[in-house]
Amino acid sequence: MEERVIMKKYLAIRPAYLLFIALLFSGFAAFYLFEAESSPKADSQELDQLFGEMGVIKMVQALPVEIRLKDLTGRPVSLNDFRGKIVFLNFWTTWCYACRIEMPDMEKLHQKFKNKDFAMVSINIQESVSQVNQFFEDFKLTFTALLDSDGEVGAHFMITAIPTTFILDKEGIIIGKVMGPRDWDGKKAFALFEHLTNGSVATTSSLRSAQ
Q1: Does the pLDDT value for residue 7 go beyond 80?
Q2: How many CA atoms lie within 13 A of 167 on its CB side?
Q3: In CA terms, which of 19, 97, 130, 194 is 20 to 30 Å from 140?
């Protein structure tokens, strides 16, 4: 008799118990989904702020950029070689005064992030190997230099001012553009590339989807 009473009490409270468990799990699920949906938006807002502080024009491109040029040793280099890294892609010339001011700062940025998911690639427009080599020796630059000898790549990117810099995400897609020189060795620049290099490929993709 006592066992029947206990069983009836158990059966009476079981639906309420199951309902409580269901609500608990649904709460966890709702919280997780909220976090998953809000995270890309939060990242996008932070990136907007960091871009704004550096005067970076935010861009939303659909396809990865592909460039294949020779470096100072004559070796062909493709942007695909840097897939999985944030790419700092800079167009410049040796006679550009602003480039001469900017490039030592770029070298400091390169030194700070070269061991992370980061690659600095400079593309010289229509100058000789000897000119670029001498410039790199004079300014003690160690990042990658490519030669756009006929200017076709610069024309494709519609370069109208130098220096011009593009920022590519880890999938090789342009996410930002800078026209003119910047203080690349300052705290704001370091914060920007710290944010970008710490993100995953999926994160930078989600930033575009959050637009």
Answers
A1: no
A2: 25
A3: 194
